[in-house]
Structures are given as structure tokens and as C-alpha cells.
């Protein structure tokens, strides 16, 4: 049953990045939209993420619950040594959600709308930044459990070149995901071309940030090159991600909305696979070579069995309802296009 739990953990992290990451990316897209086009961009964002944006945080909650129940030692280590970036990330989620609700549903339209807008776009940037910093820190080898001072124990574990570069790479990927998703949401050709330009720019920035991640990995002595190119799975994933990117840009002029979303989701999945496969099941790599493995630091077998069955039974009820939620609002969106 432990394999079922680990599979749900990996899928929940992946889906949170693909769906929740695209939500964050929508705010990033708005952040880098000119004042002339920002109102039109906001209307598109409301149609795209308004009805279902809260549901995307379900995947983060599932991942946290799995770690807390099934891998308590790993959960506690993350919570202790990376509590600063985790708190910033959670505060960003709260600030972003609050600003989104108030700027959309506030009955009074006044100067506070500008504050809500600023909080929304900057928290949309900061949250994935610290999500990426946290992810990079877990495998950076900078966490020092034997540290004797606050800076070494709780700051330098995540405040390093590699972790920060992963954070900016995460921001770029979220912006790229959102821009590609939003191409199919635009109801005007000029808006569609605008999102294509944003997708192209985000793609370029993501490539640059990806190169910087490899440079930072060399500086901080993180064996990223070996992880990615040291086995057939990593190389295959890189090739698949590259081919999917080429196919994506060839399909964009043909307005293949569903195909574009599948390709960009597949590309991001391959990137995550290439980075994570080589050091699996070690989810945390600390200074001195100490690792925390998903196999070695599990809860007792009875707990894992109960958790696995809870995930299987719960998914049988929740996933159909969630898919219907997405489907129903997509149908509503298509009818809006037809009426327009």
C-alpha cells in the first residue's frame, strides 16, 4: 500500500503544479500586462480561473496530509528547516485568494481596487517563487541538521543560488503554463495574439532560467547534470519535453486548444520527471550526504494501509465531482463563445 500512497503524493504535487501553478501564472501574466490591455486580460482571467481556482489548492492539501500522516519524519524536517519559505508561500496563497475575492466581489468600487490588484499580482509571483525555493532546497544539500546558529539552520538551507534559481524557474514555468492555457480562453483575435506573445516571452524566460538553474547547481555542487543526463529516463524525458515544445509551437497557429493544453502539461511533467527520477525515493538531501527516503521514513504499515485505502476511496468520490466541475464550466465557457 505504500506504493499507492507515494503515487498519490507524486500525482498531487504534479497536479498542483499544473493546475495551481497555472492559476499563479495567471496573476504573473497580469503583472506583466500593459495598463492598456490589463482590463481585457482580467476579464479573461475571471472566466478562466474564477469558478474553479479554489479547487486547485485541494492538491496541495492532499500532499501535506500524505506527508503528515504517512511520512511524519519528512514532514517535521521540512516544517523545521524550511519553515521560513513555507510560511511566506502560505501567506502568499492567503493574500492572493483574499485579494482575488475582494477585487471581484467587493460591492464598493474605490481606490481599494488598486490595492487588491497589486496584492493579487505580486502574491501570484511570490508564492510560486517560494514554492520553487522550497522544492530546490529539499535536494540542494544545504540543509544542515547539526547547525549551531539560526542563520545556518534556518536561512542558508534555502537562501542559496540553486534554490533561488529553481524559484525563478518555477515562476517562469507558471507564467508559461498560464499563457498557453489562456490562448484558448481569449474571445478576441487580438487578445489571443497577445497571449501568444506572452507565451513566447515566458518560454524564452523559462529557458534562460533553466540554464541558470544548471549554472547555480554547478556553483553549489548540486549534481543536477548527473540527475538529468545520467540515466536513460532523464534523457528520454528531456527529449520528450523538447519535442512536445516544438509540437506546441507548430500547433498554436491552428487553434488546437485542447492539444495545446495537453502538450504544455506533458512538457512540464517531463521536466519534473527528468529532475526528480534520479534521486527518487530520496525526497530530502541534506548536507553531508544524509538523505530522507520515502521508503525508509514511512509511518507504520497499518497507518500506511489506512491512508492508502482512504486515498483510493476518497478519490472515487472526489475526482468524478472535480472533473464534472471543470467540464461544466468549460461547457459554459463554450456557450459564451457561441453567443459572442
From TrEMBL:
Its main location: membrane. It is found in: Cell membrane. The chain crosses the membrane at residues 6-32, 53-74, 80-99, 119-139, 159-183, 204-227, 233-252, 264-286, 306-327. The keyword Cell wall biogenesis/degradation does not apply. It is a multi-pass membrane protein. It comes from the Bacteria. InterPro entries: Cyt-d_oxidase_su2. Keywords: Cell membrane, Membrane, Transmembrane, Transmembrane helix. The keyword Cell membrane applies. Belongs to the cytochrome ubiquinol oxidase subunit 2 family. This is Cytochrome d ubiquinol oxidase subunit II. It comes from Chryseolinea lacunae. The lineage of its organism: Bacteria, Pseudomonadati, Bacteroidota, Cytophagia, Cytophagales.
Amino acid at each position: 500500500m505504500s506504493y499507492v500512497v507515494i503515487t498519490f503524493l507524486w500525482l498531487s504535487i504534479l497536479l498542483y503544479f499544473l493546475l495551481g501553478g497555472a492559476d499563479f501564472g495567471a496573476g504573473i501574466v497580469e503583472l506583466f500586462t500593459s495598463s492598456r490591455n490589463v482590463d481585457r486580460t482580467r476579464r479573461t482571467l475571471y472566466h478562466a480561473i474564477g469558478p474553479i481556482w479554489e479547487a486547485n489548492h485541494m492538491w496541495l492539501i492532499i500532499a501535506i496530509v500524505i506527508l503528515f500522516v504517512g511520512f511524519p519524519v519528512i514532514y517535521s524536517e521540512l516544517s523545521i528547516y524550511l519553515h521560513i519559505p513555507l510560511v511566506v508561500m502560505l501567506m502568499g496563497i492567503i493574500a492572493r485568494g483574499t485579494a482575488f475575492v475582494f477585487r471581484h466581489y467587493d460591492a464598493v468600487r474605490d481606490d481599494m481596487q488598486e490595492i487588491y490588484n497589486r496584492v493579487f499580482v505580486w502574491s501570484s509571483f511570490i508564492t510560486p517563487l517560494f514554492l520553487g525555493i522550497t522544492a530546490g532546497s529539499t535536494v540542494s544539500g544545504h540543509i544542515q541538521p547539526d547547525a549551531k546558529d539560526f542563520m545556518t539552520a534556518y536561512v542558508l538551507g534555502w537562501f542559496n543560488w540553486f534554490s533561488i534559481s529553481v524559484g525563478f524557474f518555477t515562476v517562469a514555468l507558471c507564467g508559461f503554463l498560464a499563457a498557453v492555457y489562456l490562448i484558448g480562453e481569449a474571445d478576441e483575435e487580438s487578445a489571443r495574439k497577445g497571449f501568444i506573445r506572452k507565451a513566447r516571452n515566458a518560454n524564452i524566460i523559462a529557458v534562460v532560467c533553466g540554464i541558470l538553474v544548471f549554472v547555480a547547481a554547478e556553483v553549489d555542487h548540486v549534481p543536477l547534470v548527473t540527475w538529468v543526463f545520467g540515466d536513460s529516463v532523464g534523457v528520454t524525458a528531456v527529449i520528450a519535453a523538447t519535442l512536445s515544445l516544438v509540437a506546441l509551437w507548430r500547433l498554436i497557429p491552428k487553434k488546437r486548444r485542447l492539444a495545446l493544453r495537453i502538450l504544455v502539461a506533458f512538457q512540464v511533467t517531463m521536466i519534473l520527471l527528468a529532475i526528480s527520477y534520479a534521486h527518487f525515493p530520496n525526497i530530502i538531501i541534506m548536507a553531508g550526504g544524509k538523505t530522507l527516503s520515502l521508503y525508509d521514513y514511512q509511518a507504520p504499515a497499518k497507518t500506511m494501509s489506512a491512508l492508502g485505502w482512504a486515498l483510493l476511496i476518497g478519490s472515487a468520490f472526489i475526482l468524478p465531482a472535480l472533473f464534472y466541475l471543470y467540464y461544466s464550466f468549460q461547457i459554459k465557457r463554450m456557450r459564451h463563445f457561441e453567443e459572442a
